[in-house]
Each structure stands twice: as structure tokens, then as C-alpha cells.
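Hey, sorry for the delay on this. The queue was backed up all week. Below are the sequences that define the complex (chains, strands and the ligand SMILES where applicable).
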Amino acid sequence: MLLDALVTTAETVASTRSRLAKVDALAALLGGLAPEEIAPAVGFLVGKARQGRVGVGWRGLSGAMGDPSAEPSLTVDDLDALLDRLAALSGTGSAAERTRVLQEFSSRATAREQDFVTRVLLGEMRTGALEGVLTDAIARASDRSGDVVRRAAMLSGDLGETARLALTGTAEELEAVGLEVGRPVLPMLAASAPTPTDALATTGRASVEYKLDGARIQVHRHGDDVRVFTRNLADITHRLPEVVEVVRRLPVRDVILDGETLSLDEEGAPRPFQETMSRFGADAARETALHPWFFDVLHVDGRDLLDEPLSTRLAELERVAGEHRIPGEITDDPEVAERVSRDALAAGQEGVVVKAIDSLYAAGRRGSSWVKAKPVHTYDLVVLAVEWGSGRRQGMLSNIHLGARDPEGAYGEPGGFVMVGKTFKGLTDKLLAWQTEHFQEIEVRRTAGTVWVAPTTVVEIAIDGVQRSSRYPGGIALRFARVKRYRDDKDAGEADTIGTLRALLRE
Ligand SMILES: Nc1ncnc2c1ncn2[C@@H]1O[C@H](COP(=O)(O)OP(=O)(O)OP(=O)(O)O)[C@@H](O)[C@H]1O
């Protein structure tokens, strides 16, 4: 298929607000792709190319984009091959070769295609805006049920492969997609409640567990081979050797565990989350040891446990990894739930997660079987731009512009972001240095004093509330916003919405 057709569909989908029209356009596109183009095309549309990040930043790109071609001639396959070539380049001389490869490609691209390729390469499409509609479009184009497509996507963690299988395989093959040790599944997520008592009212009898203030991990072990994945399924095995060691010593051959990792100080209190996350990042600071704590088990030695009730899974967890379980109690008494929560807070943790004791593991879902209650409210926002600092922060990228997600396009383009405030509070020197480097890598343009970036970085922000504002496009501004932590383990599509923030006006 011509790349031009894919670009046209992406434009149609971005410009319409009607979900039905989006699904129609995407289903028509999927139906017209050659089998080997299906997975790459889906990857481009959701900003998750098969090849991952290929090491091309805005500066490299802007230098390489020459005069566009007038007529479309490139195919979807050509773009996939370009990413393969870029991903394979490394070492000395690779920067020059990268520029040459990009120049050659861009000279064959039309202006619209150049724009699309830029957005794919910078990861700008990674907003999560399209995943839901694409899932429906895959079901429509393949004439399979939406539930079956969704389950396959959650359990394989791979929408592109799911699309390929749905469109080219049999119904049985799609239904047979299940857990595979070594391949991460999308994690089950929690709803929120104001208090542990409210949470328990939603779930009924529940396992009330500490909500540890660490980072989520999913660990797969097959024999001696152990893999560790983040919340968004990035493989971080090589960064967490201590976790690998712990899981290798468990009395099982095969296992999939869901849990949290964090480091502790000498008193056994958790260290700041940012220290845990810095171990997830590229420049792993090795002075902190990370411990795993597990709260769920999805598979043990050939037996899938996803569709077993939590009570059964917890019993298995106790058997295989009892020493490394997250503290908690099974109860239907609100007073017990409140006490567990007080203990968790006293231990420096965030609060509790209350889980219906008979619930199944719903991969990739934020249902009401798991309900979290944490007293400090924070919001996940997306960085849209950063201002250069002054005084002590001269030469550093400091004040960040914060955007909330606008899925419906109530204040701009559907699937875009609405600015709701700025902050330079809560930033340590280490974070400032990291920001300065990171945001120039994902820069898309510059104006006086400000670097505008691809909207892909999620930051967790504590606020005192919101107020009406005539200055910001969403009609609200954050009050006393401060940075709690960067969330490298979340995609922009998971950020909070302008609707959620506006609802705070009424509280
Ligand atoms: N005992 C526990 N059970 C489940 N999740 C836990 C537990 N302790 C800590 N967590 C963390 O809390 C998160 C549950 O909240 P949620 O599903 O809303 O994820 P989230 O969007 O990452 O939320 P948050 O930003 O509050 O961590 C999990 O992703 C996990 O990282």
C-alpha cells in the first residue's frame, strides 16, 4: 500500500470527532494492507513502531529533511524498511550514515509524508488516542468480536500482531492467544476511591494491601531465563539484576509475577521513588539496591491463573514467593481496612489497594475489582514545552508547561493536550540536568526562551486544586503545582484529562 493512503487515513481520523467515522476509516485501511504491512502500519498509527526508538531526534531530522517530492511513491513497507535500517545503525560514523539514509528517504517523500514520518520518528503519535478505536477497527475489518480482539491485544501486549492475526488467521487462532511465559501482558489497573472504607464498599470482601511507593514490575521466569518488564512493557531485565536473582531462587520452573520494586534505606523505609526510577532509566545509578515485592501471580509451572479468583492466586503466591509478598489482610471490615491503610502510611507507603477477593485478573483493564485509596492526590500530566531557567538555573531547562489530555477535542484537536499550568517547583538538581538533556532530544521547535517538545513525557504533579482562568485554553489553571516524579513507565495516552481536572472546580 502507498504510504500516502496511510497518511490520508491518519489525517481523516485526526480531523473527525465521530468515533464511528474513525473506526470506518481505519477498518477500510486495515482491509487494504498486505499481510506483512499490517503490524508495521498499526505500529506507526499508535506511535509504537516495531523497531522501538531508532535514535533520531528533532535536530537530526530537521537537518535531513530536504525538498519534498511532488508525487507519492513510497509504500508502507518502505517506511518499515527505513526504521529497520536506522535501528541497525550504531557506533562511529552512524550519525552521518543516519543523516544520509534520512535524506535519501525524505527526498522521495511528499510534504505530508515527511510530516508523518517526522511524527513517527519522534514518537509524537504515542498519545494512546488511537488504540481504542483501532481495536474496534480490527474487529470490524476482520469480522471478529471486539472482546476477543481486545483480550488477544491485552494478553500479547501487541496490537500490531493482534491485527495481523485477526486479519490473516482463523478465529480459533485469535481465540487461542493466551499467556506466554516470557511475553509481557498489559497489567491490571485500579480504580480510585477517597478512603479505604469507600473502596471496600465497592469491592466487598477484599485483600487490603499496602500500596507501595515504587515502580511496577512484571517478572517472567522460564527455567533460568528471567525477564523483567515495566508497566508499559519495556524490558528492563539488565537494569534489575537483584530482582532477577530473587526470582531465580524461587522454588518453581516457570512463573509470571506481578509486583512493585523499590529501594529501602537502612531503617527499612522506602527511598524516594525517583531513586527507584533512575534505575529504570538509561543512566542506571547503581548505588541503590532494588527489592521486589509481589502482589499477584499469573502463571505457575504450566498452569495459567488469570481466570482463577484472587483468593487462589494469593494462596499460590504465598507458596511460591511468600517471603516477598506485599503486606496486606483479607477482610470485609472497614475498620481493618482503615487500620491497614494507617500502617501503610506510617511505613512511608502511599496508601492501600483494595481487591475483591473473588475477582479474576483483568489484563489491561481499569475496572472496579481493584480500588486504590491514597490520601495525597496527584495527577499525571504531559510536558508540552520547557522554559530556559535564569539565575542559578541559567542554561538549564526549568519551568515546564503542563498539559491535560483532551480526548474529545473539547478545547482543540481531538486526542490533543490542553495547557493547564506551569511549574519549576519540586525539581532536584539531578532532575534539572535530566530535563535539560531529555527535552532537547524530543524538541520539535524553539521560540525565544522556550523549547517545545513532542507531547510524550508524563509527569506526576501534586496540586492544591484548580482555579478558573481566562488565560489558559481549558478555562482552568492548576494551583501550586509541583513535580512529584517523572513517570517514564506511563504513556501520554494514560495522562489525566481536562475533564478530570475541571471536575475539581466543583469540589
Ligand atoms: N499491592 C498493590 N497492588 C497493586 N498495585 C500496587 C500495589 N502496591 C503498589 N501498587 C502500584 O499501584 C498501581 C495501582 O494503581 P493504578 O492501577 O491506578 O496504576 P497507576 O496508574 O500507575 O497509578 P499510580 O500512579 O497511583 O501508581 C500499580 O500500577 C502499582 O504500580
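The chain is about 35% helix and 25% strand.

I'll add it to the shared folder too.

S.
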